[in-house]
Amino acid sequence: MAAEPSSNFRTWPIVLALGIVSAPLVLMYAYLFIDTVTDAAPGSLIPNEFTLRHWDFLWRSRPGKPSIWPVALNTLIFATSTTLIVLVVSSTAGYVLSRLNVPGRGFFLAGVMVLHAFPSVTLIIAIFLVLQMVGLYNSLVGVILVKAALDMPLGIWLMKGFYDTVPWEIEMAGIADGASRFTVWRRLVLPQVMPALAALGLFAFLSGWSEYILPQVLTPGNNVQVLSVYLAGLIADDNNFDLALFKSVGVFYIIPVLILFVFFQKHLMNIYGGGSKG
Q1: Which of 45, 112, 118, 190 has its CA 20 to 30 A from that of 169?
Q2: Residue 47's beta-bridge partner residues?
Q3: Is residue 18 part of a domain?
Q4: Which domain holds residue 194?
Q5: How many domains does the chain have?
């Protein structure tokens, strides 16, 4: 009897097809990076000289533009704070909606889904007026709260779905041993949904890191500018437009995203597996 082909042999055509489809995108990003550290003759696409001149925004400010480092710090604070709020609220609210018999739970879940259905741009005028009334307009705190509120509906639904996959027996065993409901959630249930929590945190961070509309409208000041707005400002500057600077800042902008993906891609793959049965 002939031996069955190995799983690697059966899957290599899929891997090859995906590699062929992805190759142009990878090559474009590789060329973009090479283009930021080289110079080419006018009209030529082939680099002929290595240079770091296009990256000098890292150690000096360009005329009329703020330093890149305060802007990068604002972006990191914005994305990190948004992520923490989304994780805390989603992990607790998702557990309550999954495990506790809360009055009006179905109505609340439907309301959360309706909130998620509204694009943020449709609410921007109302949000703008509310932030002005409470004194949080043109501040990182205000835009962080708005971004977290807009991302929480998806996080709550995602965490509820994962909590639903965790067996009740785990909680019953903890309660039978005398543990409080909070202790059972923190020590027994939460570890079962860590893949979902890690993936939600990554999604929330990337969403905050790439957000443009909210910071552009709600934090127009240079002292609270984020990288997406800074990058857009480079395009809008018709008098001093520098394509090489624009490409270099763009590469700088995506470096943290690539680093996060390298470290957290395992959790992204596990999110489709549901809660781990412990």
Answers
A1: 112
A2: 40
A3: no
A4: 62-273
A5: 1
pLDDT tens string, the chain, 278 residues long: the values are 444 555 555 788 888 888 899 898 888 888 888 888 888 877 777 888 888 888 988 888 877 778 899 999 999 999 999 999 999 999 999 998 888 887 877 787 777 777 777 777 888 899 999 999 999 999 999 999 999 999 998 899 889 888 988 888 888 888 888 888 888 888 889 888 888 898 899 889 999 999 999 999 999 887 889 999 999 888 877 777 788 888 899 999 999 888 888 887 776 665 554 444 43
Position 71 in a domain:
yes
Classify residue 143: in a domain, yes or no: yes
CATH number at residue 192: 1.10.3720.10
State the pTM of this model: 0.85
